[in-house]
Design a protein that fits this description.
Number of domains: 2
Strand content: 5-15%
Strand order of the largest sheet: 3-4-5-6
Number of strands: 12
Radius of gyration: 26 Å
Shape: elongated
Helix content: 40-55%
Largest sheet: 4 strands, antiparallel
Distance between the termini: 32 Å
Amino acid sequence: MDKLRAAGLYISSLYPLKGKMIDRYNECLLSLGLEPTKLESINIDAIGWSPEVAQEKEELHYLNHGGANPYGIIMSPEQNGLPIYFPFHSFDRELVDLFFKENLVAIKDITADAAIIINLDQDIDAFYEPSDLVDYNMVTVGFKILGELDREQIKQNSLVQKMYKGHNSLDVNLHNKILASATKHGDLRGRALQLREVDYQTTSFYTKAFGGVFVLRSKSDGHLLIFESMDEINKYQHTYMAEYIGSPNLLDQLVQRGYIHFDVNKISRERIERITQYYFAESAAGAKHPLSDILTNKSLYLKYLNQLSQEAKMQVIGPIKFLEKAAGGHKPDRARYMTDDIYRALHSPVHDANSSLMWMLICRMQPTDPFYTYYFDKELFYAQFANYSEGYKEWVIKLITEELKTKSEANVTSTSYEQVIKENHFPPNN
């Protein structure tokens, strides 16, 4: 991942912790029943996840006690707006943003000398079977403040109010209690230490539980669970319709239910080229010239393109021909110009609602567009990137960097656009 890191595309926006902040972070870990880190400095994202601690513990989702019990750690208001790099649920980002929005003033005050542990509570102790996921519809972001400063503030205020009543100002024991509280915690009376729980209504979502499941809710068509693990889908009897993500029937189901469609008017030439270049890179493996040079030099590209078999060549140029004919008012035979894999990859969401989730699903069904995979599913992108050839890695980095600098919000979706812009420090176009 060194190349991605050098380009600012790999876990690049984090908040640093060291010294006393590490001690405070370890108190949070101990409070969650986790072993403290031995590291002297770490970095954390918006939810308090640290890549260094994850590596140390050899557990990516170390802040989770099972799929139904994820936690977070807020050490600073500076975490507000940072990415969440490896969320357990697709809505984790929205939850954390909402918690910061409702409690930012208190978070600034509390984290001056304490930390906040947040828990995503949905009144389910553990997922027993996949059908439980459909019941996962209301999530409450609860919290615990280290040292329970919020409770101590209430106690301290109560003691002070009591002192002003009657002749209580002469009560030595009451004075001693107030002094003891002030000595231990300071004067808490004017501080903003009271946090508000946040309720979040889920709709359709993705979760890492049961090996990875897309939960698509629909009262009219019935709920649909899409599993990434064949082993997990075979373990259970299902109350709701369940499909494997690699099933040949899945695409038709998603289209019939109105989630995604193949709309030639929404397919850009750039998107087709990104996908066909993926297949070209596979076919041109072993070329004498570096792949990054071939993909950026038209003469070299044409040289190697014409060396491909007719089948491989059509896989690269066929989709463009299809788009050109469709733009000219013709009705070209899809099967003649593009493979089923490319056809699947060129679908897009029908509605704006849950569009980021649908893009993520399309990327996981057919992860052949490196830019969209990076845009909507970084964890998948990082896993794929590790297996790319060196030349293709260089081309992909250049592609993503240039796309992020020129992409406008309307090109994809607002939520993902804002997140990627924050993550890579590229200002949006005005």
